[in-house]
Amino acid sequence: MMATDAEENQVEHGSCYDRQRELKLLDESKAGVKGLVDAGLSKIPRIFIHENLNISSSVTNNNVTIPVIDLGSLHEQGSSRQEIIEKVKDACEKWGFFQVVNHDIPECVLDEMIDGARRFHEQDPEVKREIYSRDISRMVYYNTNFDLYTTPAVNWRDTLTCVLAPRPLDPLQLPSICRDIIIKYAEYVKKLGLVLFELLSEALGLNPNYLKDIDCAEGLFMLNHYYPPCPEPELTLGTSGHWDSSFLTVLLQDQVGGLQIFYENQWIDITPVPGALIINLGDMMQLITNHKFVSSKHRVLARKTGPRVSVACFFRQHLQPEISRVYGPIKELVTEENPAMYKDITVKELMTHMYAIGLNGVSALEHFKLLCMK
């Protein structure tokens, strides 16, 4: 296991700290961050400490919050649909984030999905160890911090990863404790994704099927995150500031809170809304819209209370070698006054670069900007 509190105190006054050894001990335990909490640590190991972390600079002003969009009147006659499209357009241009209510996913399914993710992470550690892996080509695996060996500071979080589409997944690969709800919830999310991609297409002034027709909705990648209670939350983060890699992310979270978006040079709390889903745009959407729609930096705070549980569904392909579709700025959105800002790339190129750099506080899209735009 990790170093004891006494060993950590030694580190404070000496030079015996061996970061690689600490990372390896955590990895080889296959028990994740939850294993540390279960062992009764009262002080977080040094590998989790984020330097110069200033949580107190966050804004909790309720007047500054991401838009909440009601999809309930989407199919009504009249101007209702156009009003929703305008709200989506405004949110995507200014925030890259919004919440949706009346999205046709029953609240009991949302609750069951959160409960299923919690059950997986809270089951016997020996059962979880069977699927612990750092092989990112696997369809289903559990670990702590995909970038454990490259990140400047480890995040206070464990994750069950499931690649659900486009390649069909054998349901028996999913953990039995949450198999049925993952399958059920994923089907609901796929349907919601198609609705959202229609709205985004129209908000861009394109044919409603445009984004679907270029396969933005083909891939689905699910991350079931578990953030255990943290004894020193002021020293670490649940998830470092980062940008999603997706075209679109559908995030289900419990009511614990802790998610923040970086907006107008300050961190702003995203207060959970019961029954709502958070929708945010990823780097692939910013790339193909030529920065008309934005992918926004966000993070998750560590908490003394918890656990916090969330389920993020990313609409994007993963690393399958057979996927080679090239994406660049949509030609209808490129003009002489607004020239292409990004190179043409595959999703695999973005993902390979993202996995190489980890959550290091730099947008992966910076690597793909055209030289003339830097």
3D architecture notes:
This protein is α+β, with helices and mostly antiparallel strands. It has a single domain, classed as Sandwich (Jelly Rolls). The chain is about 30% helix and about 20% strand. It has an 8-stranded mixed β-sheet with strand order 1-2-10-7-12-5-4-3. The longest helix is centred in the middle third of the chain and has 25 residues. It is globular. One of its GO terms (molecular function) is dioxygenase activity. Belongs to the iron/ascorbate-dependent oxidoreductase family. Keywords: Iron, Metal-binding, Oxidoreductase. Pfam families: 2OG-FeII_Oxy (PF03171), DIOX_N (PF14226). InterPro entries: DIOX_N, IPNS-like_FE2OG_OXY, IPNS-like_sf, Oxoglu/Fe-dep_dioxygenase_dom.
CATH topology: Jelly Rolls
Q: Return Rg in Å.
A: 21 Å
Global geometry = globular
Beta-strand residue fraction: 15-25%
Give the N-to-C terminal Cα separation.
45 Å
Biggest beta-sheet profile: 8 strands, mixed
Helix-strand topology string: HHHEHEHHEEHHEEEEEEHEEEEH
Low-confidence stretches: 4-14
Helix content: 25-40%
